[in-house]
Automatic annotation (TrEMBL):
It comes from the Bacteria. GO terms for molecular function: ATP binding; homoserine kinase activity; protein kinase activity. Residues 2-315 form the Protein kinase domain. One of its GO terms (biological process) is threonine biosynthetic process. Keywords: Transferase. Belongs to the pseudomonas-type ThrB family. InterPro entries: Aminoglycoside_PTrfase, Kinase-like_dom_sf, Prot_kinase_dom, Pseudomonas-type_ThrB. This is Aminoglycoside phosphotransferase. It comes from Paenibacillus lautus (Bacillus lautus).
């Protein structure tokens, strides 16, 4: 932390842990009073080339008019610094902290939800192979949807055989889907309501570390899936119908998505659910979980095993 803070011009004493899945995201104040975000990425897990693609794509989206968190350079004029400690190597990147705050009321601020959908639609339009800047899109060698280690490595035993059976069924169905420019391209892959801020009625997007080629309908499903988790069970159906209507009306202002793909969104919502469970089962130490998290994951597992959909979405 000391090394990285010096590289980006601030003593580590000012770094405050914000979190992140790997507890690797920090905030610090610059000498001019501005606030910045610093991320430490384990070099054994994150290749420098993938970080370069992430920063390049964010810069391109900003050029195309999307409000984005801005990368900052180190005192050596580098966007990516490398630090070593106890023989472990880390890539370090930093951004200006997006002004504003997270969307605090997902259940009622439908004007922002529409803007959220419009922003995603714009990203998807720019992420198509036939986009205006297709030469850039063609050069962006992002991973395909199933290139993640969660698909390549052994299935986690902790998830259980019943979940494994359903997991294989989902993968088989997804592998059969077309991957043409009408429904497949570069997506954010994690654009839930904690990955943007709202400032003066405008959305500022950030955290593009999971960008990949995927189905556009899946990116929409991610937004719906995480938003619906904030709502009590007895209100989910009503909420998701209104959320979907607002989000999609914004989305379709920027990108065309056929009815055939829209009809698949419920499939992708349920896939996101099993993906999230398998991810936790694979990468989180169950013995170190608090009781609340453990109970939540056991309930997820029970719903998956019972074939229960996350939410009833009538399209």
């Amino acid at each position: 932390m000391e090394q990285a803070a010096e590289r980006f011009g601030q003593g580590s004493y000012s770094l405050k842990l914000l979190g992140g899945f790997d507890q690797n995201v920090f905030e610090y104040n610059g000498e001019d009073g501005r606030r910045f975000i610093m991320k430490f990425l384990d070099a054994s897990k994150y290749r420098k080339a993938s970080i370069i693609r992430e920063l390049t794509w964010m810069a391109y989206l900003a050029e195309q008019g999307l409000n984005m968190a801005v990368s900052i350079r180190s005192t050596q004029d580098l966007l990516i610094e490398e630090v070593t400690h106890d023989s472990k190597r880390y890539h370090v990147i930093a951004f200006t902290k997006a002004p504003g705050s997270p969307l605090t009321d997902v259940t009622s601020d439908f004007a922002i939800i529409k803007q959220w959908g419009r922003g995603m639609g714009r990203m998807h339009k720019l992420g198509k192979k036939d986009a205006t800047a297709s030469s850039l899109v063609d050069r962006m060698a992002f991973p395909q949807w199933n290139d993640h280690v969660i698909f390549a490595d052994a299935f986690p035993e902790a998830a259980g055989e019943s979940v494994h059976t359903q997991w294989k069924q989902y993968l088989q169905e997804l592998e059969s889907l077309p991957q043409d420019e009408k429904g497949y391209g570069i997506v954010h892959n994690d654009l839930h309501h904690h990955n943007f801020h709202v400032h003066n009625g405008e959305i500022i997007f950030f955290d593009f570390g999971d960008v990949s080629y995927h189905w556009f309908a899946y990116d929409i499903a991610i937004a719906i899936y995480h938003a619906v988790q904030t709502v009590p069970e007895n209100r989910k159906a009503e909420f998701v119908a209104r959320f979907f209507d607002s989000f999609l009306s914004g989305y379709l202002q920027e990108n065309t998505l056929s009815e055939e793909w829209i009809q698949r969104i419920p499939l992708f919502i349920d896939f996101r659910n099993i993906y999230s469970y398998v991810y936790f089962a694979k990468f989180v130490n169950w013995n170190e979980m608090d009781e609340r998290t453990r109970k939540y994951l056991l309930a997820m597992k029970a719903d998956i095993e019972a074939g229960k959909s996350v939410v009833k979405l009538s399209i």
